[in-house]
Amino acid sequence: MNLEKKMVVLEQIYEIYDNFTKGLDVACNKYCANCCTRNVTMTTLEGYKIADFLELRGKTDLYTKIQKALYKKRFLPEITINMLAERCLQGEDIPAEESDARWGACPLLINKECPIYMVRPFGCRCFVSESNCMENGYAEVDPFVLTVNSVFLQYIEHVDKDGCFGNLTDVLLFMQTEDSRKLFEKEILKCEDTWMISNRPIKAFLIAPEHKARMEPILKALQNSFSSIFMQDSGVNS
């Protein structure tokens, strides 16, 4: 799949998810940045989209802001969502990963506002708490929404299956240079040479039995929109 098609598919995924969240009772509002931590993860496809946005909008100075906070501890994923699904399917153990919101806020934030909100990655879009995190000290997300989020994350990774996955900091700093973006465009990334890990195609969906019926229209919307593009692999299970 060429990059142009991948970007179209990514936009479709975002649009379908936005339509889904319109029916949710969400407490998240402007300046509510409790969930905007240093631990947000994303794919290189999303990073490329953000890098393109920064270039077009003249906001490349944000790279300096990210670089200055590079020394701070951040979540470094060891497994992607599709790797997790594969291991669950095979009955394998899931590695414990260290992540702590106290490591600090997202390095992009400016006065509790996101300067890339229009093109924020799905890892940010899916923060949809039913309660006010500022007041309660924690997010409250319906279990079904968590299932929906997992499936969307799986699709995004599948679209970028030739790319990488990592912390927002590492993905964006990688995409800062033209040489890196060209490697991505040519699908010749070597994730092992970076702080990122390789993406994987979908082999099984992370859908709890009690959520299968409710997930059907969402899966249908996703599959009908671009099944001919990225559901060409066989053996996809739920």
Fold and architecture overview:
The longest helix is centred in the first third of the chain and has 19 residues, at 3-21. The chain has one domain (3-226). The model has no long low-confidence stretch (mean pLDDT 90). It has a three-stranded antiparallel β-sheet. It contains ten helices and three strands, in the order αβααααααβααβα. The radius of gyration is 17 Å and the shape is globular. It has helices spanning 3-21, 44-56, 62-68, 81-90, 122-125, 133-136, 143-159, 168-174, 178-185, 212-230, and strands at 41-43, 164-167, 197-198. By secondary structure, the protein is mainly alpha-helical.
Feature tags:
single chain, 238 residues, mainly alpha, 10 helices, 3 strands, globular
Low-confidence stretches are: none
Task: Specify the number of helices.
Answer: 10
The best one-word shape is globular
Tell me the domain tally. Answer: 1
Helix content: 40-55%
The ordered string of helix (H) and strand (E) elements is: HEHHHHHHEHHEH
What's the Cα radius of gyration?
17 Å
Look at the structure and give the mean pLDDT: 90
Major pleated sheet: 3 strands, antiparallel
Alpha-carbon distance between the two ends: 24 Å
Q: How many beta-strand runs?
A: 3
